[in-house]
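Sequence design from tokenized structure. All designs in this work follow the same two-part layout: the structure record, then the generated sequence. An example of the structure record is given first.
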């Protein structure tokens, strides 16, 4: 019985880790079924916009924000605000209307997974907010902390 328990505990731990990690790894083939009448559902986030928490948070000099944009997005911006809600900076993540530098064909590479590196050397310590605005609509916002 002791041998069975020692083999069972790592298996349960591995199963728990796999269950928790599966959504984070982007698996989209979830399946639910019933015996009497079958019901199937496929979950996918390919059409969703995702804004992740910056890392590291809190940060001293630099932090990174990752995001995911679906193919249908025409314009996306990352907006940065101070603790009072004042806009500090707006950054175009993608703009299919053309870029100011005339390289309109290169903006498609920003679709899908992307990252924004934030350098906060000039910021005072405190709380800041960033938001992802897609096609004129704020889809999500997060807080980040600048510290020494």
């Amino acid at each position: 019985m002791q041998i069975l328990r020692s083999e069972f505990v790592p298996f349960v731990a591995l199963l728990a880790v796999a269950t928790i990690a599966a959504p984070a790894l982007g698996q989209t083939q979830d399946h639910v079924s019933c015996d009497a009448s079958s019901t199937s559902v496929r979950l996918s986030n390919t059409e969703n916009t995702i804004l992740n928490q910056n890392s590291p948070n809190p940060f001293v000099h630099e932090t990174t924000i990752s995001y995911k944009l679906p193919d249908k997005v025409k314009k996306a911006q990352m907006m940065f605000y101070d603790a009072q809600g004042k806009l500090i900076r707006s950054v175009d993540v993608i703009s299919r209307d053309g870029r100011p530098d005339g390289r309109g064909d290169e903006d498609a590479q920003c679709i899908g997974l992307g990252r924004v590196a934030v350098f906060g050397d000039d910021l005072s310590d405190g709380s800041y907010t960033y938001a992802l605005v897609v096609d004129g609509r704020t889809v999500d916002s997060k807080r980040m902390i600048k510290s020494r």
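The chain has a mean pLDDT of 74. We note this feature because it recurs in several other targets discussed in the main text.
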